[in-house]
Each structure stands twice: as C-alpha cells, then as structure tokens.
Amino acid sequence: MTTHPISAHGLERSFGTLVAVDGIDLEVEEGEIFGFLGPNGAGKSTTVRMLVTLLKPTGGTASVAGYDVVEQPNMVRRSIGVALQDAAIDPLMTGNELLKLQAILHGLGSREATRRSGELLERVGLTKAGNRRVGTYSGGMRRRLDLALALIHNPSVLFLDEPTTGLDPTSRLSMWEEVRALNKEGTTVFLTTQYLEEADQLAGRIAIIDGGRIVRQGDPAVLKDEVGDPTLRIEIGDSIMLDTAKAVLTTFGEWRPARDGRLAIGLEGGAKRMADVVRSLDAQGVPVAHIELDTPSLDDVFSDATGRRLEGAMVDDEES
Fold first, then answer.
1. Which label site among 3, 63, 75, 79 has the fewest CB atoms less than 10 Å from its CB?
2. β-pairing, 157-161 with 188-193?
3. Could you read off the pLDDT of 156-208 as tens digits, one per residue?
4. Is 120 exposed, middle or buried (0-12, 13-18, 19+ CB in 10 A)?
C-alpha cells in the first residue's frame, strides 16, 4: 500500500459558526509540486495550518509524511519544512544565528549546524548577508531566509504558503527557480498561492479552493482544456453602446466573467470567428477600444467553477 506524502479526507475547520474549511479531499503524490490555488479568505492558509499541525481539524482526517496530524503531530513536524507567509523572524538576530538556532532545535549538533547553515545561506544567495541583522533584509531576502530555515533538517515534504507574495518580479523568478531545483532533488512541495501564473509555472497538479471547498482539481493543462472555447475580451470605446455590444456578442458564445469595463465570452469556433465578431460590431456602429483572444487559463478554470475571476492574478493577467 502506497502512503501519500500528504493526504486529507473530509478535512474541516470551523471557528465558532464560521466554516473556514468545509470537507476537503486531496492526495499529493511523492516528488510532485502540488499547487493549492484560491483567493484570499478561501481557506488556503487554514488548510496548511492543519496539515502542519498548527491547527487541529474539527472534522475529517489528514496525514503528512505517513503520520496522522492529530495523533502524531511531533512526527509530522520532524518530517516537514514550513515557510509560512506570516512567519515571525527576530529582526535583531542575523541570518546565520537564526539558521544555527533552527538547526539545534531540530537536533543537529553544533558542528553540523554550522556546516548546514553555511550551505543553505549559499544556496539561497545570502552568504554575504549572513552576518547582518534580519531587520536590514529586504522582503525578497526574508523570503529566501524563510526557505533556508524550512530546509535546515532536509525535510521530505515542504510547505510553502504564498512564498512570493509582495516580491518584485526578479525575486519571484529566483524563488521559482529554487522551488524547481528542490523538487528535482526529490522534495515534495505543497505550494499555496493566489497567483495564476505561479501555479501554472510550477505545479504538476493543482486544487482550486473557494469558500472552504475544492471546486476543481487535477493537471492544469487538462483543467484548461476542459474549459473549452478561448475567451474573447472586448473593451467598448463608448459606454452608451454597451447594450448593443452585448446583443451582438451573445450570438457568438456564452458569457464569461470580466473585469469592470470589459465584456468577455467563450468564442465558439475560436480565432477563425474573430473577423466575424469585428464585422458584426462595426455593422452596429459599436466602437472597439481593445479586443483580444486568450486561450483558456487557470483564471478561466476558476471562473468556470465559481462564476467570477480570481483577484490574485499576476500583473500581466490583470491587464488582460
């Protein structure tokens, strides 16, 4: 019988009358990057906190690294690395000091702690900053230190809770490269994110959570294919013509969620119908300020499942 590195069945967590996680089921395969995608408040972080034993479930079961998160929490903690979005780091300590302390807390001897700290500082590109106080680190440097702290004891399962939130594009790409490298070395990664591109770039499988429930799960490419037609997005140059534009577009496909000021449909027939759309709008005197056709994305998958778009899209997606 194969034991999944992460497994949850009917997992629930309530805070009084508020149901934050409502009976989720998931299984993460050994050696994969599993993306957990959803908007703020969807239940991502609550789920992670249960899986890493910081919160007790109020229903269902879960196991991590082969250990029950309720019955064997200490064994879970010894087996995993965790980098939480809101992790508290003493700003008065240096990166080197924090890593050595973390190593000792995990039972490493002094010599091994020193060796491992230096090794990880080099890995995350913080060797020169290792003896600086963490309070002087940039946001990107702190996130890289978070990662190093999570790796100090060579965990087999790594939890990354929104690891690139607030990072600039260069720091984000560097973090992606490091996550890929860790995965190639055999580390199973559970990645929570609200960024569509991040999930698409890194995860072999994803689960989309909304309102505490998983609404889609599987291979990102397969999920996008299941959406079907590409999305046509149009911005009308004159708001007075909006109703006319809607009447025209209704004949070309089903409506999809769109940001304010734009219209979106699933264009039946794809790119070959673009010219027909433009001609039809022009015949009705509708001025088009912007038009584009996008192949199905994870945002379309989320929209198909929930009826709205995901607010945590990357900058380039927000412009689409």
1. 3
2. parallel
3. 999 998 888 878 888 888 889 999 999 999 999 999 988 888 998 999 999 99
4. buried
**pTM of the entire predicted model:** 0.80
Rg (CA), the chain: 23
- With a CB cutoff of 8 Å and minimum separation 6, the contacts of 295 are 224, 230
The stretches of the chain forming alpha helices (DSSP H) are 44-51, 73-79, 95-105, 110-123, 139-151, 169-184, 196-202, 220-227, 242-249, 274-283, 298-306, 315-318
| C-beta neighbour count of 174 within 10 angstroms | 18
pLDDT at residue number 309: 74
Handedness of CA 184, 200, 176, 209 (dihedral sign): negative
34-84 pLDDT, tens digit per residue, is 999 988 888 998 999 999 999 999 999 999 999 999 999 999 999 999 988
Q: Are 237 and 300 in contact (CB under 8 A)?
A: no
